[in-house]
Amino acid sequence: MLGICRGRRKFLAASLSLLCIPAITWIYLFAGSFEDGKPVSLSPLESQAHSPRYTASSQRERESLEVRVREVEEENRALRRQLSLAQGRAPAHRRGNHSKTYSMEEGTGDSENLRAGIVAGNSSECGQQPVVEKCETIHVAIVCAGYNASRDVVTLVKSVLFHRRNPLHFHLIADSIAEQILATLFQTWMVPAVRVDFYNADELKSEVSWIPNKHYSGIYGLMKLVLTKTLPANLERVIVLDTDITFATDIAELWAVFHKFKGQQVLGLVENQSDWYLGNLWKNHRPWPALGRGYNTGVILLLLDKLRKMKWEQMWRLTAERELMGMLSTSLADQDIFNAVIKQNPFLVYQLPCFWNVQLSDHTRSEQCYRDVSDLKVIHWNSPKKLRVKNKHVEFFRNLYLTFLEYDGNLLRRELFGCPSEADVNSENLQKQLSELDEDDLCYEFRRERFTVHRTHLYFLHYEYEPAADSTDVTLVAQLSMDRLQMLEAICKHWEGPISLALYLSDAEAQQFLRYAQGSEVLMSRHNVGYHIVYKEGQFYPVNLLRNVAMKHISTPYMFLSDIDFLPMYGLYEYLRKSVIQLDLANTKKAMIVPAFETLRYRLSFPKSKAELLSMLDMGTLFTFRYHVWTKGHAPTNFAKWRTATTPYRVEWEADFEPYVVVRRDCPEYDRRFVGFGWNKVAHIMELDAQEYEFTVLPNAYMIHMPHAPSFDITKFRSNKQYRICLKTLKEEFQQDMSRRYGFAALKYLTAENNS
């Protein structure tokens, strides 16, 4: 304790020195700058122009004086740097070998000061300095439901991770949709010293469904009331956040405020910054009871252990039942009930300074929370208008939010210095696999890509689809990058069935895609398209990983494995469903081939029938796909036979065959070793053949490849000899793996390759 006070006295003395030295210096300079009662300029040129008493000696004195001024200013700057370092190293009351002190300018619970926006310090209370252990885990609870809220949570988490210096444990109360999305995201994000647990929000509905709620958050907006019952019994304290929060500081500073709770204080809340609970917003406005302006529940500090002892569950239920007799429903969800409880029991609340929850809804007093925007710690977009809210600093707030929205999440995969992460089996296996690779191998980067874990955000937009009851439904599967977005609307017009797309994008590109999709009437009218974002990492386009992600997240029994550059014929969806029945795909191993054609024209009058397509083929408007550059890829389809075929016909596998097929959803995945350009589909078709799939060409189906600029990967393949050498090496290794897996039957692939 004595050491802390001594440290503070040293810090105070240094601060006074910093203030006094420049003041004394400038008094001295100011006094010395007068001659005969007249001010003398420090500039030699100005003196020479205006003073007849100018001499060489006085010139030297003034130059010397200027040099001294610069020296003093430099000393001041050095002293400031030392002070900032000293502040960072200020001694703390240690609870262990590794502790950290956050010098907090926090509220003391004095409501008058807080309501005036004045931050009350506690610098005189040496023994009450809040402490957060360096490696102490900070617990954060968030209620999240649905597709949009899942996107919001990611931005919130990014802002927390960006500033944090402590291990984090997220407790996510989520519905099945949010859990699927966020569980996959965190598993593939692999952020060190971050743990995530999920709690089934749907199981909690019965706890709060009896409360009528008018708020847009619906039933999930009431679930913070049951956290004492939902979260683990051994969890003593937790920070509870809304999904529309953005952090501008280390969350450990907020965690440290728990040390300031006294007596029966169990809730840490910021005063509501609107006039809602004052009841004067409009005529006959009748809000729920609240203490003064009431409190906002976007940021809550909960002392769970004390709340349980106080029988919080019984307390809020009795209050809600009593108030609902007159109010009939809540308007602001859980916030109304929290405030009603606090009105009856004001001793429960510790009032946080308002910079811990700057509420950006219209007509708030949020601007009184800070003297400068740099003072802000937490921004709360608690208006339905979100980024369109009115505030004189809204541009600053919006830019801060957009910074985290588009921030590269891969950069947040940093280890915490001095804080060992919990053992993670997936991370350990990944490190083991990577350590077995030879970094001197010229194909090292190709091999490494196979083990790269790409952060993945499933169902980036709202998805809603129930497969057809007759078990014939087919999902179109494809992958794309930013330069192919223009194909989405056209594909949606050609294919009315469900679609599963994997998009390879950066964080910033994902937001561009979101704006593009939300601005498209065609895309917004379709709820049966699943958009799965696979975030960019590494130098190769992970084409087969993308295909696997899109394949894995379909809800239909069959899938059409296509590419984004192809437009299916009108009516193909219904035709394929009929073919599924005709060829008994449910009980046989068949791969139905959709013949592929191409046009070199950017504007094409799309053929509406097979007869029209054949006519265009004869006129040279259309060609069989890759006829000019890669005939082997689709030659086994036997286009000559297809011209006159009226029934499905079987074809045999040949070397380099890569048709577009319809298969059952249980077909093998694509091989991830093939990235960029070359052999990615060929290897998959080879595996289907090895597993004895029968290739059947559909006589009245077709798809047309639309022209586009060459991809970056095909350019690398054509221009880089080492790229081609590595692709050949990977091919040989794949064929060897096939021989090991399928034995004698796989020898034909080696023979076919040698003969081709």
TrEMBL record:
It catalyses: 3-O-[beta-D-GlcA-(1->3)-beta-D-Xyl-(1->4)-Rib-ol-P-Rib-ol-P-3-beta-D-GalNAc-(1->3)-beta-D-GlcNAc-(1->4)-(O-6-P-alpha-D-Man)]-Thr-[protein] + UDP-alpha-D-xylose = 3-O-[alpha-D-Xyl-(1->3)-beta-D-GlcA-(1->4)-beta-D-Xyl-(1->4)-Rib-ol-P-Rib-ol-P-3-beta-D-GalNAc-(1->3)-beta-D-GlcNAc-(1->4)-(O-6-P-alpha-D-Man)]-Thr-[protein] + UDP + H(+); 3-O-{beta-D-GlcA-(1->[3)-alpha-D-Xyl-(1->3)-beta-D-GlcA-(1->](n)-4)-beta-D-Xyl-(1->4)-Rib-ol-P-Rib-ol-P-3-beta-D-GalNAc-(1->3)-beta-D-GlcNAc-(1->4)-O-6-P-alpha-D-Man}-L-Thr-[protein] + UDP-alpha-D-xylose = 3-O-{(1->[3)-alpha-D-Xyl-(1->3)-beta-D-GlcA-(1->](n+1)-4)-beta-D-Xyl-(1->4)-Rib-ol-P-Rib-ol-P-3-beta-D-GalNAc-(1->3)-beta-D-GlcNAc-(1->4)-O-6-P-alpha-D-Man}-L-Thr-[protein] + UDP + H(+); 3-O-{(1->[3)-alpha-D-Xyl-(1->3)-beta-D-GlcA-(1->](n)-4)-beta-D-Xyl-(1->4)-Rib-ol-P-Rib-ol-P-3-beta-D-GalNAc-(1->3)-beta-D-GlcNAc-(1->4)-O-6-P-alpha-D-Man}-L-Thr-[protein] + UDP-alpha-D-glucuronate = 3-O-{beta-D-GlcA-(1->[3)-alpha-D-Xyl-(1->3)-beta-D-GlcA-(1->](n)-4)-beta-D-Xyl-(1->4)-Rib-ol-P-Rib-ol-P-3-beta-D-GalNAc-(1->3)-beta-D-GlcNAc-(1->4)-O-6-P-alpha-D-Man}-L-Thr-[protein] + UDP + H(+). GO terms for molecular function: glucuronosyltransferase activity; UDP-xylosyltransferase activity. It is a single-pass type II membrane protein. SUPFAM superfamilies: Nucleotide-diphospho-sugar transferases. InterPro entries: Glyco_trans_8, Nucleotide-diphossugar_trans, Xyl/GlcA_transferase. GO terms for cellular component: Golgi membrane. It is found in: Golgi apparatus membrane. Keywords: Glycoprotein, Glycosyltransferase, Golgi apparatus, Membrane, Multifunctional enzyme, Signal-anchor, Transferase, Transmembrane, Transmembrane helix. The chain crosses the membrane at residues 12-31. PANTHER family: GLYCOSYLTRANSFERASE-RELATED (PTHR12270), XYLOSYL- AND GLUCURONYLTRANSFERASE LARGE1 (PTHR12270:SF48). This is LARGE xylosyl- and glucuronyltransferase 1. The lineage of its organism: Eukaryota, Metazoa, Chordata, Craniata, Vertebrata.
